[in-house]
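Reopening this ticket.

The earlier resolution said the output was attached, but the attachment link was broken on my side. Pasting everything inline this time so it's all in one place.
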Amino acid sequence: MIAEIGLYCLILALITSVAQSVLPMWGAYVRNARLMSVASSAAITQLALLLISFGCLILAFVRSDFSVEVVAANSYTLQPLFYKISSAWGQHEGSMLLWVLVLALFGAAVAAFGNNLPDTFKARTLAVQGMIGVAFLAFIIFTSNPFARLPFAPEEGNGFNPLLQDPGLAFHPPMLYLGYVGFSIAYSFSVAALIEGRVDAAWARWVRPWVLASWCFLTIGITAGSLWAYYELGWGGWWFWDPVENASFMPWLIGTALLHSALVVERRHALVNWTLLLSILTFTLSLIGTFLVRSGVLTSVHAFAVDPSRGVFILFMILGASGGALALYAIRARTVQNGPPFAGVSREGGILANNLLLLCATAIVFLGTFYPLLIDALTHDKISVGPPYFNMAFGPIMLCVGGLMALGPFLRWRSDVAKVAAKPLQMPAITAAAFGLLVTIVGKSVPAGLGFGFAALIAIGLVVWFVKRTRLGKVPFKQSATMARAFPRATWGFLGAHLGFAIAMVGITAMSAWETENVAVLRVGESTTLGRYEFRLASTDITRGANYEAERLTFDVFESGKAEGQIESERRFYPERQSFTTEAGIRPGVLANLYVVYSDAGPAGGYTVRVNRHPFAMWIWIGGFTIAGGGMISLTDRRFRVAGLHKPSKAAPAIPGGTAAA
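Inline output:
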């Protein structure tokens, strides 16, 4: 009965989303307040129905109801409760239900907290959001029903994918969904604005908090996923340029550009059409990511579905959503007024240049991701585009992004002089160049010198900007502290996010340039070395978990002959899936991680082990979470909480052509 309740709620949510799509849009057209008010009620009702439906799915997993097909395929009686719950979104059907739940959550949030929006604009925004909900709810009900029953319930389930039985699974996918599904609100805001023909500073202030929140969640999700892969998959990397990794990274890149472009619209009413286009492209890339994971074109630990018919359904959704929005953009963009022009050397010009670089970086990732799929579809030839391509093509562009990040805060709005703007960065640039040269010589790596040099330029530039803004050293310290306390929280968020980028750049550069590795077959008492470190296999033992058996290896670690503790690594066997997983042993450190993996049993009673030293590895994830933390701090700024310049008392009057008066 629980499954049937969940399915009924899904069907009711689909009906509600149809009403949300049609009635408010018509109400906005004829200026009918009662019809427009349906938007908020329908959005909140849809969220309530989907919460019940998702709760029913979780309950089916908790109760081990193997008459439900997805439970039988992805759960097991002895599976720990934590993983029974997370199994609810660890497969295609449940993850799609989570997807549409997050979509409804954002729609309901606009309904509840968007009282400062003009009535017609709010109605149209929620109607567009409802249209997206119609498409995905139909997809779930007709192709991916999570409540489908089996004719005969098995006595035991097939178990959950062992690779996904990790606390990271409970955290990583929901954060990703809050990120790239959250960009649907920016899409809906933009389509509604194009329909009304009105984009101004108020619009930018309304849309920026939603973009920023989505961007923060996506940053957290990507960073957490990278960390999870590092310690769980056992290959010792933090990023593999896997197509599904790229699927979440591309919206992040364009979303970063959108976030900064919306700032220009708010402050100077410039880059209006560009911002509208970015919002459409960002959500389009989110939909493309959904297609990659669920179309069956990929085989990956991230991929949930292998049914091409589902991929065709999503492909039509992409064509409808992005094609319709771009067609509307082509028709209506010329009616949207832009603000006054700006010089190439200006804050606006710097942000636009950074936007273009981020767009180029996205194009590089897109090409590297889809080119092998295109070749396979056309010729059935298998080719691989791996890290060498991405590192060579993507890396230099991101160095340029870093250089503009350092210069941007010193540029004036509207117009500036290059020499004047760059003057405060002269000493930081010299210092960063000297530091980069030193790293190149000592580390014997030109890429490492470039990465460390640009990271230093960003960090030192932030310090110089802070000193300049607070007049530190020129006025009494108490006065400087007062100036710093007067900074808006968005300013502190900007400082944190940019500093996080520099920190992550150090970690990525060091990990790429100086990682070392050694593979050996050891017996108990034998050891292998890696640089100044010695790893001695001290003991082995068998342990048991709730639903697995594990062979654990314990290593004594010595640095330059001095004992530095122990590291343990496991190889786990899951009987219900007849599969093995590897649990890496990691000793984290500020300057380097020691990484030990027991990969397989070796010949003659030995054990095949791999040991790595990962310089500055922790800086990658510290930097990523710092970037997200900076965004979260910005979200607490009063300007974002207000999220609008005024609270209109009634809808804007219509003008010829269907646009609203500004």
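Reporter confirms the inline version is readable. The chain has 21 helices and nine strands. The first strand starts at residue 516 and ends at 522.
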